[in-house]
Design a protein that fits this description.
This protein has 389 residues and is α/β, with parallel strands linked by helices. The chain has helices at residues 2-17, 26-38, 100-116, 118-123, 141-147, 207-219, 221-225, 268-283, 303-317, 336-339, 371-386, and strands spanning 42-45, 51-55, 66-73, 126-133, 158-165, 173-175, 179-181, 183-192, 196-197, 232-241, 247-248, 251-260, 287-296, 299-300, 322-324, 344-350. It folds into two domains: 2-181 and 298-386, Aminopeptidase (3-Layer(aba) Sandwich); 183-296, Alpha-Beta Plaits (2-Layer Sandwich). The chain is built from eleven helices and 16 strands. The strands form four sheets. The chain has an eight-stranded mixed beta sheet with strand order 1-2-4-3-5-16-6-15, sandwiched between helices. It has a four-stranded antiparallel beta sheet with strand order 10-12-8-13, with helices on one face. Strand 1 (42-45) and strand 2 (51-55) form a beta hairpin.
Amino acid sequence: MNNLQKELISIRRQIHRNPELGNKEIQTTKYINSILKQHGIQTRLFKPTGLTGQIPAHKPGQKIRKCIGLRADIDALPILEKNNKPYCSRNNGVMHACGHDAHTAMLIGAGILLKQNEDELKKHNCAVKLIFQPDEEEIGGALRIIRQGALKNPGVDCIFGLHVSPEIPAGYLGFKYGQMMASSNKFEIEVFGGGGHGAYPFKAKDVIFAASEIIVSLKSLTQRKVHPAVPAVISACTVHSGTRPNIFPENAFITGTVRYLDKRLADIMPRIIEDVVRNKTAEQKLKYSFKYSRLCPVTENDNGLVESCIESARQVAGKTRISVLDKPSMGSEDFSEYMQLTPGCFAWLGARKHGSPDVLHHAEFDIDESVLITGSRYFARVVMDQIKK
């Protein structure tokens, strides 16, 4: 394991040094592809980025008893790295601040381990598909490669993924039965029809005032319209308007995020948000446009797979390093798109590093690299346990 650990650290650092944004992971895709081929793993490339590896190699017409999917995301974030490490980002303003470099290295490591156990996979007439997914951060990469056939030929029967967490001690694994992460949705509002001189507000139509009233109303909307026992979030996160301090602008733009765990809110949330926008703009005799986009569904683990993954994790990390979480996260993951088509289990892997921030998406984010081999061994153990079922 020592040699593999060194290789995974080298791979992770190479990816960390050369981060690429979603749907632009050209060199990352090439790099992963070259490593998989060096280890004799069959690959399939997607357009414009992303790839899968398969063990054993797939043959046309071949019937497989079970195909197990493992997924890692490969894209980075538009963040200027502030770490002072030899493996810091060379791509100015782009950084792996969410651990996708680690996820990728772990999945490559799992592929190497599973390639060494290829005969056992063949014995059980099973296959493993390594899914290196682009564009998780913007949410859309999973759906794109699914549409290109990532879960087909052979069809994936169950799928597994993980995410590093700086909030959990390094090497610990966290699992959640049922709902694990929220659905992610986006709203875009334009308030328009305003204008006038800043010195004469009584003659003007004030889109900024209307926009501010919309934002304040949205802040308390879930308290007034959603049962308090049902988690739901509406957050206005960007506001843009105006060009000069003495001109009432013609329009104002608001964008934000909507999160929920109860699928029954899927149609309710856009309706109650637009009701607020309609009423507040009407009061000011202004007009509006409203766009609501559903980005990804709730990440909901299969309870049976959670049970088996906990047992696999115990064999890798030990009984004392496993925890079962009682609360879901209001964050989101487009891993949920795979779960719409096949049962799956998504887990947290603790990667806290002393002296680094305990939050993701931070300019000084880093991980304890000792967890890379843990993630690889966990993935491989899950597969080897699943093929016996």
